[in-house]
Structure formats: C-alpha cells, structure tokens
Write a structure and sequence with these properties.
The chain is α+β, with helices and mostly antiparallel strands. The structure holds zinc ion (ZN) (8 copies). The site of one zinc ion has 8 residues, from strand 26.
Length: about 1850
C-alpha cells in the first residue's frame, strides 16, 4: 500500500492520507508510518530532493507547502520577534528601553518602535544574537514595536487542530531521521583534515532537512509548540530511539544506537549506567591525592582522552596539576551525560559537530516558545561542562566561542530562567567547577618570592587558553548570571561556592611574574602580559563587580562578611604557599593581586554602603603588614619603571605599568591597591609604614643630612627620580579620597577634570578615558544624562573647525576657566596619567590659563587643593602626617635642599611642602597648645619628641650625627666646640640627634608588632632574616660618623628656602607685622596659584594661624639679620637643578617657537598651493602670467639656488603636477546638484553630464563627416584630460635630473614612486611629477600694443592668413634640437602618458596624428576651463580678480603650440578661408565616396579659436588674436541664433521671419532680427525644422520669446566662449582681467576686454550682443554660405541635424552628489544592497560620490584582470581619481592613481566627532563644511597636496 502511494503524485497522496488519518480507526496513521519508513529510510540519502519534497507535501496535507505556510502564519500569535541573526548583522541597542544590558533589536523592530530621543546605538553583532522585541524580561514594553506589543496578538484565533494534524504525525519521524543521520555521520576527529571533511559532508547532506525545520519554526507559535513536544518528550525519544519501533530494521537501529554510545564514550562521557563504576574510581583517586592549597593534586578522574593529549606535550605545569576537592562536588558535572529526549541528544550532536551555524539558528529560532526555552536551557546547562571541554580542544575556538555565546546570552539574560536553572540544575556549581577545570589545564608553579619553597600555582599566561582568550564565553556567561540578584544571592550564600571561587581567583594571584634584568637586555620581549591583564579583568574583576552590585545595602552585610572571611583565608593560604615572611624578594614584581583587590573592594563597599565597622573586618596587624607589601611593591616598581631601571626588560614592562593605571583597568587594579595601602596605613604604626615606603623605593640611604652618601640599592642617576616617586606616592596616598569618602558625583567630576586638564578631549575619548566609577557594571552608563550634565558643568564645547591646510578637527571639550581656577588637581592627573608627558601637558595648559587670565605670570607650581572630608573610619591615615619618621625625612630634605645637596629637585621640594601643608590641614585632635607645653627643654636628646607637625615645625635641631664616607667634607670639620659653652655635654649628644636609620626603625617596629602577637612571634622570627639582601648603611665599612651642626628648625629652613626661591635675601616678611588685621587677609583661593614662594608663604601663614608659638618663631627668624644662606657662587646642585629646569623650559619654548614658525611657513605654502581665495601675498611669486616689465624673466632654481633666465641651452622649468581629470566631464546642465539615491526608485542617469553629451556629439559627427575634420570640430578631455598645476617653484632641468637621481638612490621610504617620475618640490614639498620648461622670452618680439583701429579688419585677416600659409609651408622643425626643445618634447610625452590611451584616441584610426592634434588643443581648453571653474564659473563678482596662483598656462601654451605647429593643416580645409570669405560651392569637387567636412555651424568655436591661435607662429601679435576672436564671434553669433530658431515653435518662427524681413534696410548686418529672419529663411529650405517640431524640443519653450529673452539667451550662449577667450588673452598677453560686480555686466565687460566692443562706446550693461559683430564680408551672404553647408549634408542625417545644430555650451559648476542629512538613510539602503555586477551583497560596500556607482571594495567577486572594482571605477569614472564613501565605516577614501588615502568622514555625531567603522553606532549627521572641503579638493585637484598619508593600493581596493 505504501509502495503504491510512493508512486502517486505527492500532493494527492498527501491529501488522501490526511483524509485517512482523520478517521478514528488509526489505519491512516499506520499507512502514513509505512510511507515514512520508506521515505525517511536511513538508506536514502538525506540530500535527495525527493525526501524533502515528500516531507513538505505530507506536512501540508495536500496543499502546496507555500500556501500551508501562509495559512499557519495567519494564526501566529507570538508576541516575541525572536529574529535570529548571525555575526556581522546590524542590530540596535537602546539603553533607555533595555532592562538587560544585552538587549538588542532587529532593524525592523527598532524602526517600528518609538525610540526618538532615547540613548540608542547601532552595532554590528559579533557573535550573533536575536531580537528581544516583545520580551518584557529584557526590555521595557514601551520600546516594543507595534507588531510585538502584547495587545496586538489578542485578536488572533488559535490554530485549528486539523491544520496541524499531519505535522503531529510526521515531525517525530523527521527528527528521528535527523538524529540517525547525525549518529551515522559522526567519526571522532583525529585531527586529520579528511575526517573534518567527512563531518562537513554530513552537515551538508542534512542541510535541506534543517532548512525545512527552520521554515517550520518561522511559521509561528503553532509549529513551534508541536516541535517542542517532539523534542522534549521522553516517551517519543524512548520509543523511537531504543530501536523497538521497526522490527525489520532492528539491526540498523541497534547499530545506530551503538554509534551514539561510542560517541558518548569517545567524548569521555559515561551514561548513568556506568556511573557507579566511576564513583568507585573517584574514591580511590581521592585517597591518594595530596592536598595543596585546599585542592587536591594527582591524576584523579582525568578522562583518558585528555590524559593522552596532555602526555603528548609535556608541560612544566603538568605534574602540579591541581584539582578541586571532589568531596564537595558532584563528579557528575564533568563526566556524566544521559539523554532522555531528542532535544538533549540533538544538542549533544550540535556540540560534537562544533556548533554548525544552521543547527544553532534552528535551535535559537525555537526560543520564542516558552516551554522549549525552559527545556532547552536545562539541556544546555546539562551539557555545559561538555561544551566547554569541547571548546578547549577545538581548533576553531573563535568561531565556536561566538556560537556558544550566541546561544547562552539568549538563555541567561533572563533572570527568571537563570534563577530556575540555578536552583534546579546547579548552574552555579557547574560554572564554577568548569571554570576551575579549565584553568587547571594550564597551571604552573609560581616563582614569586621563594622559588624553591613555593607551593603556589598560577595560570601560565603563555598558554593558548589565556592567550587566545578561549575562556571568555564561560566567563561572560558567569558574569551574565551574576548580574541577576537572585542568582548572585545564591552564590553569596553558598560557602562552598565562595571557597571554590577564591581558589579560582588565587590561580591568578601573582601570575605573570616579572624579574628585573640587571645585566643584559631580555632576548625576547614576552607579550604575555596582555593575556594576564585581560584575564584578571575578565575572570576576576568583572565577577567581583557583579557581586558587589548586590552588596549595596545594610541588609547584605552578611554577604560581605562571608566574602571577606574567605578572601582573608585565601590570602593567608597564599602567603603560606609562597613562603612569605616580611620582605618582598628584590627585583620582582607582579601586577596581579586579585585576592588583595577582592578584599579591598568588599571592604570599601562595607564601609561605604553597609555601615559595617572597619575594625571588625580587618585581620591582625601581622596580616595587615603582609598585605601591604605586594601592593606597595607595585607602586615602587612603577616608579622604578619610569626611572628607567627596568629598561633591560624591554618595552613590554612599560606596557604593563601603563596598563595598570589605564582607564579600563585602574578601578580594578591601582585604585583597590591604593585603597588597601590607605587602610593599612590607617591601622599600622605610622613610623613603620613611612619607613617601609622609603625602603621599598630604595631611597633610604639618600635621606641623610650628610653631603655625601653611599647607596647600596640604587645608582646615583636613579636616586632623584625614585625619591620623587616615593614622595609623590605618599602625597597620593594621603590626598586621594576615591574610596575614602568621595561621592560618585565627586569622583566622576574629578576624573573628568583630570582628563580634560591633560588635553582637550573629544566626547568619545573622554567616555573611554573615564573609568566607570567605581564599578564598571553599574554606575555611570556611557552617554547617560548624568555624564552629559557633568560634562557641561566642567567643560566647554569647541565645535569642529578646519585648519588651513585641510586637516580636520573633531568637536572638542575643554575645561572651563573655573575648573582651572579651582579644580585642577595635579595629584589626580599624576594618578591617571599613562604617559608621563601628560602631566607636563596639564601643567603647561595650567600655566597658559594663568598667563591668559593674568593670575600669575611666572612658572607656576602645581596648585595645592583642599581634600574632600575623610570618612571617619579611615581617620588613622592622617597619623602618617604626624609621625616622627616622616618629620625627620621632611626636615632632612628641607635641609638638603637649603644646602643644595646633590639630586634634589623642585619636584621634591614641591612634594615636601605638599606633605607639610597636608599635615597642617589635618592636625590631630588633641590641641596644639598642649604639645607646646613640652617646649624646647624637653627636646634634649634627639630629633623630635612629639608627633604633631605644627609643633615639630618649630623644633630646632642643633646637631645631627651622620654617617658619611671618609672623603666627605663633614669629616674634616672640627666639632663646633668653640662656639658652644657646654662642650662636654655636646659629646654626650645631649642636643644631638641620633643617627637615624629608617631600616633599623622599620625592623624595630616590626619586631614590636610581631612580639605583640605572641603566638606567631617565635616561628616568624626563626625564618625572618634569611632572605634579606638589605644591609643597613651603617654596616658599610668606609663610613664614619660625623657630627653636623645644624641649628635649624623646619620653619627656619622654610624661610631660607623662600629666599632661595625668590632669589632675594630677606624676601619673606610676615605680613601680620605690618598689618594688624592679619588673618583677614588670608584668602586661600588667592594663594593657590603661584610658584614655590607662594607655597612657602601659604605654609607659613597656616603655621602661624595654628599656633601662637610658631607665629612668634617666624617673627623671630625673620628679624634675624641675614641668616646664613649659602652664597650664590656656590653654584650648588640644587640651584643647578633649578637652573637646568629653567634652561630646559626656555629651550622648550624656543623650540616650540621654531616649530610654529616652520609650521606657518609650511602652511603658507599649502594655502597658496590650494588656490583658495586669498588674493594677497602671492603676486610676487606669480611667474607665468605676470606682466614682467624687465626685458628678461629671471628664475630662481630651488635646487642650486642660482638665478638666471631660461635659455635654449640650459632651460629652467616649473615644478608641475600632471594629473588626469574627469571633473569637467561630470558637470551637469542643471544647477541643482544630483541627490545620492537612497531608495530603489531614485536613479542617476549619466546622460546629462558634459562628458556623455560630448561623447554622443563626436560619435554623431563621425558618422557623417570626414574623420579628420570631426577631430577639429570638438574638444575632448572632459573625461581623462590632463590638468597641469604648479607650486610656482622653478629649477634648472639638469638640476632636477640629478635631484631625481639622488631620490632614486635614497633608500628612505617615500610615499611617492620615483620610478614614475614622482617627487616633491625641494622647496615646498608639494607633490609633483614633471617639469614644464619655461620658454625663453624674447622681449623685443613682444609687440607693443597697437590700437586695432590702425589696421582694418580686412587687412588683419589677410595677415593672419599669410602667417598660416607660411606655417603650412615651413613647419617649425624639431630637428634643430636644443636642450629646450628636447625638454618640451619630453614634457609632452609626460602629459600624454598621464592619461589612458582611450582618452586620447577618439579618431577612427588609432594613433593617427589627428588624434594627437585634438588631444593637444583639448589640453589647453581643459586647463582654461578648469581655471574658470576655480574662479567660480564666471569672471565677475571676484572671479576675475581672484589671482590665478601659480598658473603655468603660459608655459603650457608654448609647449602645446610648439607641438601643434608641427602638424600641417591642409590649406584647402583651413577653416579660416571659410570663415572670412565667400567661396564657391566646393562640394562638387569632392569625391562622392568621401564624407564631407563638418559644417562650420556644427563646429565648436572655442576649439576653433585654440586651433587658430596655437598654430600661429610664436609670439602671436595681439592684433591678430583680436582679429581671430572677432571673426569667430560672427560664427558664434550665427550659431546662437540658429540654435535659438530651433527652439521656436513653428508659429514663432514664421512671425520672427516676417518681422525681421521688414527691418532689412538699415545696418542690417548688426540687427539680430534681420539675421534671425535670414537664418530661419535659409534653414527652412531644408526639412530641418520639421524634425524639430517634435514634442521634446517645443516643450522647451513654454513661454513666448520676447526680444529681451532672445538677447539674454544669445548672451548666455556666447558667454562661455567669451570667458575662456578672455582667460586665454589674459595668459597670452598678461593684461589684467576686467572687473565687474554685476552678472549682467559680464558680457559687456568681456566683449570690450576682447576688443569686440569699443569700451568707451557704451556703458557695459547696455552691451548688445549684436553690436559686437563685425563682418568681413556681407553678413547675409556668408550666413547663407554657412547654412548651405548644413543643408547639403542634411539629407544624409536629417534626424541628427537638430541635435548637431543645437549646441548648448552652458554647464553648471562640477559638484559631488548631494548627501542626505542623516547617515542612517545611506546606511540602511546600501549596507544590504547587492552589487549589480556580481549580484552579491559586498562585504565592504563603497559608493562613488561623483556618480553614485555602488562597488565592491576589495571584493574578489568583481575583480577584473587583477583590478578590484573600486580602483577600476576610479579609472573609468575619474580617470584615476575616485572618491568613495565606505558604507560600513562612514569614512571616505580617495584614490589617486596608484595611491589612496583615508580622507576622513563627512558625517559627525552630535559631539562633532567622526565614528570610523561605526563603532559607537550613534546617529551621524552630515557636516556640510567638511563635504564642501572634500568637493573643493576634488574640483581644485589638490588631494595630493593637502592629504598627507598616502599608501599604495596595489589595485586591491
Ligand atoms: Zn525584531
Ligand atoms: Zn518587534
Ligand atoms: Zn528606546
Ligand atoms: Zn639649478
Ligand atoms: Zn614648490
Ligand atoms: Zn563614479
Ligand atoms: Zn561589485
Ligand atoms: Zn562583487
């Protein structure tokens, strides 16, 4: 029965089966199954078209499948869009509407939703995604599009059962077949390409089936729910897959099933049956494990395949492989899989086949079904471990990662679902276990601290897993689920999980250890550091921030307590494992301390938000001391790195130092470190802390008051900068409040101010530079209103401007004046600078501000800022400022500074003063007066007694005992016994400070603290000293003790320093002594800007204000006459340093000035080169066209510097750039610019461009007329003509040749190619490629202007003719070779080679001289017309006065003329005769087979003019020129009238014909009416006008012609000729162009300029076109003659007569296509548009902005003979110049010949910034100024000069 069905027509079979099935007897179902057995038999290949056909027909149950689709779709009630996309799809994200940050929308839903004014952006999907429209768990309902609003689906009826009945029966079998196929097709890849191909084949074969399933999912809810039932049902799976169904094929089913089992096993997975065996193994393994770090080591349950892989490549870390304790975790997570439904097995196979795209899409398309989503999520979680294992092994981990995330993001972004699987499927346990498992595969032994006794293991950052970031899908999933409160809570409550997590984090603690190279430079600069930073940020910090967002309120105190506890445990374990006691190992640093940072950040949160007591979370003192060491080591190393002490480790170490503070890392790295150090400082003994700092920075030895010292730890050259580093660190530590009390607002403001002070910033840079504070996952969202408000509060916007020279700027933000005045904080700047020069830049800008506002004119010091109040929990921090050790250091440094000791600097002094001032501003609470009680007497034995700085400032130190080298001056000095009365007591050191050793101090304190913790004291003391390499300075044998008489207090030292800084004795005088209203003058604001003296004064005022005692002391010190200041001549080191700094500053200024000068010189070259309208300054340099009064022009050679005339023997030439141009060819008739099409309806047709029109004309002419004649009747070069421009500089041609030779030998990389003759002008560096010889001027020949009245027109005509005859007989011979003529020939060759052959050969015989002739005068025409365009298209309104900068037209005309005179024009065809004489009808003399000559009325007058002028002998007389122009004007006028007559309607023609006849009597030669009437009469003789009276022509004239409009139209017709002719005259004879202000005057002005009108005769605006006529013979006769030429040939081409007769020489200025305002309009239409050539959607679509052609940039698809489409188009459309908009980047590239450059973008965002590659995806708007500049550069051919960064494109664009 089934067999018979198979033979039937599928649709009818399906229909009858459906009927059978709907009966209750079940026979139909049986029948259907039989049929399916056969159709879906495993023996039939899935790829067979029949199989799918059958399935489709059966599912449709007799309908066509398409109809069925439509019917089902009609019932779709899905409220979710769920559109699934793959990588590179363009989607949208709206932050205003999104709940989850992962939310995304398809373009359709986005555009149909309401998002105006929202914070949205467009983005290119990287991993793929799905549309969330309609999913209210991910986005707000208000953002849904109309279609997916939940209300929209209410009215849709549910689908009738009958429609879906067949699907219900068939789909289980289809799915079964799919699974069978997957099982059969699989073979374990043995990393051999053959099997990989097999897998690909298997996938290909099932493609049609998957497509079918995909189609079904797209039909909507109904089919999806059936599929869900099939996929998730256990029973169906059991029935079909256990092999019970088909008895006949039992063997197949069994084999098939076994393949599945084999695959499971092959993956290292077991089914639950085997589970019992495994657990026994587990126990055995567990017993033998050794415990390290709370984890177990050993081989354990590593599955066999992994084991083998590992054995293959033995690694260091292998023996130390660590596994987590299996006691806490279910081993089933990693190794057991049991499939209970189709969905599970299908996912298994999807993983096995490494996520084929089609399968992924199918699985994701099902997601809108809620039941499926739950089932699938659970299945995904079930396979999670397996997925990640597969990922690690995958060779294509990048693709696979993307596919995994594509799926998981859809599942885990939904909080409810994530919570459900966390609870039901142990999602968190699985994730953490898998993370541990993953990292375990690449652990190595840590070498930190004690290499031998180190039991800690860390990840090896060189492993592919880390280097390639393979772990990111897992980490990103983890971060994603932790963002859900309910899930995070679960995590924080589970102590087991936390413990595991801390284990995980500790793998990163101390990774990527750096050891300072002391001897040789590292051979290989390892770049692993980036992997390390990325790993810490992504795997440790991000989850931390995720957890922290859920610890924001008091109620969550418990969580923080737990985390802190486990963190401390882990830290303790770590210290134990690395065998750490108290000293860090020297010359080692790791930037990775995630455990420290976890601890720090949870601590910060606890104090800030949860009101926890700090002390309750702190460990004991010993632990605090340990915790302080490594972060402090990093700070010291930063300073070492910047002091160049790590140079031998290569550049990468600087990279690490910079990354550590960089904006994306700082809030997870340096900020927590500083905070932790602040916490330690606030609780540890301040003396201990301070001495530790100086010891870590290795500057202890430097801190002696002796003039000389030895330093065991540091080279002298590094001392100063390390001391600066140490002091700066202390200042940062004490003034930074980021975690100590600043609010989020204050932090953001401070960050913003710091960045803006360094440099003006664009909006996007600023966004990027501001750390999302303090928590990257919450807080400020980029672009939020919050951010914007803050920005507008602190910064002013500077709109993008253009700099001359074309460099484009972006919109910038610059600090407001108030910010400089009150908020600029150098400390914050130092903290956030990646490059040290940024600090200098901020200071320079600050100085600029002070100068500009007149606040301070000197060299300012960094301003001191009051700090935000300290959170009371950290008050202890201020004890640092009030401890003896710090005060001794400060005193010592002040003393050293005042004594001009070596290696002191202004910066050091600045930091010292900063610390003192901080101390004064943060006095301890016990009153100052109290301390004063102790007074002088109690300071009998040593340094200071109290700790209050206010008191200690005043404390006088009399003697200090120092250890000095024996050579030091102190040693020889006698003890000051004679000056002291109590000598004996002095020796007893009653008033002498003890030798102070910081190291000893720290040791002592450490011991004290340790002893307090009696438990640990003994064991710690045992091991302590052995690793120490530090030796106390006193142990150095060469040192001897000396006693120094000091007798200073810090106050006296400060006052001395004031003298020093001001350079004046007694410069300081306490103001209160002169002014009784003392303190009222104390305005700290006014005091904040200034130099060192200001800082000292401020401190003294503060000191005086704090205590009466101090005030008195200051007075006393100041009263003392001339305190001992070291005399100036000492020329001390300090002064030297200050001087040096000053000198350096001056040098810097000088240099800047020089640079600026140089730049402005360059710029002025550029400006003139750009030919912009700035008529000044250039006249002097204008050579070509200038009226040189001197007899001979003198040229300067820019190479040899000599000056002289250009001669035949040693010609001089102009530096020129020759380039092919099609700019004029793209002119259009309409003055409205063409719009760029942005829909299918809009189109651009090229027909109305100048280039096309001329092409058509020449083809038409060639059809009917003699070729050589045709080639003299038009101009070419509208497309591909050669434009010649010069920078105006000249050189000897022989000098140029040697210059080129030197360039050729120069191996320096040049952006131009010397082989192509390219070079840059030696003077102005402008790009050039040829040299145009200057024609030696023979002044005597230059005719004196003779008024043309002197000779009659007739006489002149004859003279011209004579000269032309002459020429015919005696062509100038090139055989008389001179150097000049050789060069002229060679430049002509260059000109020809500049353009392509096809732009030269227009004649029928390629290469004929006629072609060359045409080409040459066309070059002249082109250059004239381009100049006209550059002048604005006309010669009035400034067009005439605009100086033609650096024109080389005169020289060019000479070269062209010389070559053109080589051609012989047959006198019989010389147009001159026909122009000036009445001749016999000549057509009879011509053979019939030859085509006639082109009638004069068809000829192009400008071309005729150039031919006549350029073929005349050299040094054309002006009277002859004028004569030619006059003769041609007659013809031009006739053409104008003829053209006009064609435009008339028949009636008008008759009317004008008749009215003109009446006026014949008087002055008829100059009456347009007579002439018009005559022409109409003549032309009517033929059938000319009949053809014209078709619609299209008469349509042109809707209005009636009046005499005025006729005159106007004649003038318009003639003007183009008059303009080019005037320019020609200007260049040939050097007379100034006339000036006129009104467009109406132009005709008259030009006519008189050209001598057509007597200028005195009439006021120019009344100029009448006909009054310019001057006929050599009777007008009517010669007109008749011209008309007859047309008539004779008209028979052969009556159709074209009209077209040829109607010339329209008017073209509007060339312009680029008009672009839409909003970039999205372009993007939406073009980014998915298919190319017309390859009909594919290009990967990199580009758009020609000249003609609108759409091309495949870089595409192989459209490549022709190794030319990619873009390059090809640039040749065809722009003769080598192309301007393309890259659709996907919003950037414009310019192609010029073999080079290209990225021009920039003409679309900017609201902040005036480009968005290259659309990375930010914010709306972009057209910046018309930029677009104007682009157009300007195109029209003026200045791309080469203005844009700097060119590269060769090798035809690959
Ligand atoms: Zn959508
Ligand atoms: Zn939608
Ligand atoms: Zn929105
Ligand atoms: Zn020279
Ligand atoms: Zn130059
Ligand atoms: Zn184009
Ligand atoms: Zn293409
Ligand atoms: Zn293509």
């Amino acid at each position: 029965m089934a067999v018979s069905l198979l033979r039937r027509d599928k649709r009818s079979a399906a229909a009858s089966l459906k009927a059978e099935c709907s009966r209750p007897d079940g026979r139909g179902v049986q029948l259907l199954n039989d049929l399916l057995d056969s159709v879906l038999s495993p023996e039939r290949a899935l790829a067979e078209a029949e199989v799918i056909e059958w399935c489709k027909c059966l599912i449709a149950g007799g309908e066509s499948f398409d109809d069925f689709c439509k019917m089902v779709c009609a019932y779709d009630n899905a409220t979710l869009c769920g559109l699934v996309w793959t990588a590179n799809f363009v989607a949208y994200r709206c932050r205003t509407c999104g709940i989850s940050p992962c939310m995304s929308l398809c373009a359709e839903c986005f555009n149909a939703g309401e998002h105006t004014g929202h914070d949205f952006n467009m983005f290119r999907s990287q991993a793929g995604g799905a549309c969330d429209c309609g999913d209210s768990s991910v986005m707000r309902d208000s953002g849904f599009c109309k279609r997916h609003r939940s209300t929209a689906s209410l009215n849709i009826p549910s689908v009738p059962n009958e429609l879906m009945m067949m699907s219900e029966h068939i789909l289980p079998r289809v799915i079964l077949r799919l699974v069978q196929h997957l099982r059969d097709g699989y073979s374990e890849p043995v990393s051999d390409p053959a099997t990989e191909r097999d897998l690909q084949k298997t996938l290909q074969q099932m493609d049609p089936l998957i497509s079918l399933l995909e189609d079904l999912t797209k039909m909507g809810g109904a089919t999806r729910s059936i599929l869900t039932r099939v996929l998730a049902n256990h029973q169906i799976y059991k029935d079909l897959c256990s092999g019970d169904l088909c008895t006949g094929e039992k063997t197949y089913a069994k084999k098939n099933y076994e393949k599945y089992l084999a695959a499971l096993k092959g993956s290292g997975l077991v089914t639950s049956k085997e589970r019992s065996v495994t657990s026994v193994l587990d126990q055995m393994a567990g017993a033998s494990n050794v415990t390290i770090l709370g984890a177990t080591a050993g081989t354990g349950q590593m599955d066999s395949s992994d084991e083998e892989e590992q054995d293959g490549n033995q690694r260091v870390g292998k023996r130390k492989r660590v596994e987590l304790c299996n006691s806490t975790k279910d081993p089933s997570i990693m190794d057991i899989l049991k499939h209970k439904c189709f969905l599970e097995e299908i996912l298994f196979w999807t993983v096995k086949y490494e996520f084929p795209q089609k399968m992924v899409t199918f699985l994701l398309n099902m997601l809108p079904d809620q039941d499926y989503k739950i089932a699938f999520t659970k299945t995904f979680v079930q396979h999670y471990a397996f997925i990640m294992k597969t990922l690690i092994k995958s060779h294509e981990s990048d693709t696979m990662s993307n596919r995994i995330v594509h799926i998981s993001v859809q599942l885990f972004s939904n909080e409810e679902l994530a919570r459900q699987v966390t609870e039901e499927c142990q999602l968190l346990e699985i994730m953490v276990t898998v993370l541990l498992y993953m990292m375990e595969s690449c652990l190595i032994k840590s070498e930190l601290q004690d290499e031998e006794n180190n039991f800690h293991v860390v990840v090896n950052c060189g492993e592919p897993l880390l280097k390639n970031n393979t772990y990111w899908p897992l980490v990103s999933d983890f971060i994603n689920i932790l963002s859900h409160q309910s899930v995070a809570k679960r995590f924080l409550e589970d102590q087991g999980l936390l413990q595991m997590w801390m284990n995980f984090v500790s793998f990163f603690q101390g990774m990527n250890l750096n050891k300072r190279e002391l001897n040789e430079h590292v051979e290989f600069e390892s770049q692993t550091y980036y992997a390390a930073f990325a790993a810490e940020l992504e795997a440790c910090a991000q989850p931390m921030w995720g957890l922290l967002t859920h610890c924001k309120i008091r109620e969550t105190q418990g969580y923080t307590r737990t985390v802190v506890r486990y963190c401390l445990d882990a830290l303790q374990d770590w210290f134990d494992a690395i065998n750490f006691v108290d000293e860090p190992a020297p010359n080692q640093v790791t930037f990775h301390l995630p455990l420290h940072r976890y601890y720090a950040m949870f601590l910060s949160k606890a104090i800030r938000c949860q009101q926890l007591d700090l002390d309750s979370l702190l460990p004991d003192q010993e632990m605090l001391m340990k915790m302080m060491v490594h972060p402090l080591q990093i700070q010291a190393s930063l300073s070492e790195i910047h002091s160049n002490m790590w140079v031998r480790n290569g550049l990468q170490i600087k990279g690490q130092a910079m990354t550590y503070v960089q904006s994306h890392f700082c809030n997870s790295m340096i900020d927590p470190d500083i905070f932790l150090l602040q916490v330690c400082a606030s609780r540890l003994d301040p003396d201990y802390f301070v001495s530790s700092v100086f010891e870590r920075f290795k500057v202890v030895d430097l801190l002696t008051m002796a003039s000389q010292h030895q330093n065991a730890a540091l080279d002298t050259e590094h001392e100063r900068s390390m001391l600066e580093g140490a002091l700066t660190f202390l200042v940062i530590l004490l003034s930074l409040r980021i975690h100590l009390g600043m609010t989020d607002d204050e932090i953001l403001r401070a960050e913003m101010v710091a960045q803006l002070c360094m440099s003006d910033r664009t909006h996007s840079t600023l966004l990027d530079l501001i750390p999302e504070n303090p928590n990257p996952k919450s807080g400020i969202i980029p672009g939020s209103y919050y951010f914007e408000n803050m920005l507008s509060a602190v910064a002013d916007f500077k709109a993008p401007v253009f700099e001359p020279g074309g460099s484009m700027q972006q919109g910038m933000y610059t600090p407001k004046a108030d910010v400089w005045n009150q908020e600029f904080d150098p400390i914050m700047v130092i903290l956030r600078t990646v490059y040290r020069r940024d600090v200098q830049s901020a200071m320079d800008r600050y100085m600029g501000f002070l100068k500009q506002t007149g606040k301070f004119c000197g060299n300012p010091w960094p301003p001191y800022r009051e700090r935000a109040p300290l959170n009371p929990s950290y008050k202890g921090l201020m004890r640092i400022l009030h401890c003896k050790t710090l005060h001794i250091v400060l005193f010592t440094l002040l003393y050293k500074m005042s004594m001009d000791h070596q290696n002191m600097s202004e910066h050091i002094l600045c930091m010292v003063l900063y610390l003192i001032e901080l101390g004064l501003d943060n006095l301890p609470e016990e009153t100052v007066e109290e301390e004063e009680m102790f007074g002088e007497e109690r300071c009998s034995d040593s340094w200071f007694h109290g700790t209050n700085i206010a008191t200690n400032l005043n404390h006088v130190i009399n003697y200090v005992r120092v250890r000095v080298p024996e050579t030091a001056p102190e040693v020889t000095r006698e003890p000051p016994a004679s000056t002291s009365s109590d000598t004996s007591s002095f020796v007893q050191s009653s008033n002498t400070a003890q030798v102070f050793s910081l190291v000893a101090e720290r040791r002592r304190k450490f011991q004290e603290i340790i002893n307090r913790n009696s438990d640990n004291a003994i064991q710690n003391a045992d091991v302590r000293p052995k690793t120490s390499k530090w030796t106390a300075p006193s142990s150095t044998p060469q040192l001897t003790t000396a006693i120094l008489e000091v007798r200073e207090s810090m106050l006296s030292l400060l006052i001395k320093l004031h003298y020093k800084l001001s350079g004046k004795q007694n410069s300081y005088y306490p103001f209160w002594l002169e002014d009784s209203e003392s303190t009222s003058r104390l305005d700290p604001m006014q005091q904040s800007h200034g130099d060192g003296t200001t800082a000292v004064e401020r401190i003294l005022i503060k000191t005086a204000a704090r205590s009466r005692q101090n005030k008195c002391s200051i007075e006393e010190i100041c009263r003392k006459v001339a305190p001992p200041v070291p005399p100036k001549k000492n020329s001390s080191a300090d002064k030297k340093a200050l001087d040096k700094e000053e000198r350096r500053q001056k040098a810097r200024e000088r240099q800047q000035k020089l640079l600026a000068e140089f730049a402005s010189r360059q710029k002025s070259f550029m400006e003139t080169a750009m030919d912009l309208e700035s008529p000044d300054s250039d006249v002097a340099m204008d050579i070509g066209s200038s009226e040189q009064q001197d007899s001979e022009t003198v040229y300067d050679c820019v190479i040899c510097g000599q000056s002289g005339p250009s001669t035949e023997e040693r010609p001089t030439g102009l530096v020129v750039l020759l380039q092919a141009s099609s700019v004029l060819g793209h002119r259009r008739r309409s003055t409205e610019p063409k719009k760029l099409p942005t829909s299918d309806e809009e189109q651009i047709y090229p027909e109305d461009t100048c280039g096309t029109a001329h092409d058509v004309r020449i083809t038409d002419l060639q059809q009917y007329f003699k070729d050589s004649s045709c080639l003299q009747s038009v101009s070419i070069g509208w497309e591909g003509g050669v434009y010649v421009q010069t920078c105006g500089h000249t050189l000897h041609i022989d000098c140029h040749k040697s210059y080129m030779e030197s360039l050729r030998n120069d191996q320096v990389l040049q952006s131009f190619s010397v082989d192509k003759g390219e070079f840059t002008c030696p003077l102005c560096r402008q790009f050039a490629n040829s040299v145009l010889p200057c024609y030696p001027e023979k002044s005597e020949e230059k005719s004196i202007w003779s008024p043309y009245i002197s000779k009659t027109l007739q006489a002149l005509i004859e003279e011209v003719e004579e000269q032309q005859e002459q020429l015919g007989m005696f062509p100038v011979s090139i055989s008389s070779v001179t150097n000049l003529s050789k060069e002229m020939e060679s430049v002509m060759k260059d000109i020809k080679n500049t353009t392509q052959k096809k732009y030269i050969d227009y004649g029928k015989t390629p290469g004929s001289p006629d072609n060359d002739f045409l080409f040459m005068y066309s070059v002249a025409r082109l250059n004239l017309e381009l100049e006209l365009v550059h002048r604005g298209g006309n010669l009035c309104l400034g067009g005439a006065s605009a100086t033609t900068k650096r024109s080389c037209l005169n020289q060019l005309l000479h070269v062209l003329a010389m070559h053109m005179r080589l051609f012989r024009i047959d006198s019989a065809y010389n147009p001159w005769t026909r122009l000036t004489r009445l001749t016999q009808v000549i057509d009879s003399g011509i053979c019939d087979d030859e085509k006639p000559e082109v009638p004069l009325l068809y000829r192009d007058i400008s071309s005729l003019l150039l031919i006549l002028v350029l073929t005349m002998p050299q040094e054309l007389h002006k009277e002859h020129f004028t004569c030619i122009v006059k003769v041609l004007y007659n013809l031009l006028y006739t053409q104008a009238i003829a053209t006009l007559s064609v435009r008339f309607s028949e009636e008008e023609r008759t009317a004008w014909k008749n009215s003109g006849k009446l006026k014949i009597m008087c002055n008829s030669d100059k009456s347009w009416e007579v002439l018009l009437s005559h022409i109409i009469g003549e032309l009517s003789k033929g059938k000319l006008y009949c053809a014209s009276d078709t619609d299209q022509v008469s349509m042109l004239s809707t209005s009636v012609w009046s005499p005025q409009s006729i005159e106007y139209s004649i003038q318009q017709f003639c003007l183009p000729f008059l303009r080019t002719t005037s320019l020609l005259q200007h260049h040939l004879f050097g007379d100034d162009l006339p000036n006129c202000q009104r467009t109406e005057e132009e005709f008259g002005m030009l006519a008189s300029y050209l001598g057509l009108l007597l200028s005195s005769l009439q006021s120019s605006d009344e100029a009448n076109s006909s009054s310019c006529l001057e006929w050599p013979v009777a007008a009517l006769d010669i007109i008749s003659q011209w008309c007859s030429e047309v008539m004779t040939s008209a028979e052969s081409h009556s159709e074209q007569v009209m077209n040829l007769l109607v010339q329209d020489p008017q073209w509007s200025l060339p312009c680029l296509l008009q672009l839409p305002e909003n970039y999205n309009t372009i993007f939406q239409y073009y980014h998915r548009k298919a190319c017309v050539h390859c009909s594919k959607v290009p990967k990199d679509p580009a758009l020609c902005l000249v003609c609108g052609t759409f091309v495949c940039l870089k595409g192989q698809c459209c490549k022709q003979q190794s030319y990619c489409e873009c390059v090809l188009h640039s040749q065809n459309c722009g003769a080598g110049t192309g301007i393309f908009l890259l659709i996907n980047a919003s950037v414009i590239i310019v192609i010029r010949g073999h080079r290209f450059c990225l021009w920039g973008s003409v679309y900017l965002d609201t902040h005036g910034e480009e968005d290259r590659d659309l990375r930010r995806g914010k709306p972009l708007y057209l910046c018309s100024e930029r677009y104007k500049v682009l157009e300007q550069q195109w029209v003026t051919h200045t791309f080469d000069h203005i844009n700097k960064r060119w590269g060769a494109h090798y035809n690959g664009l």
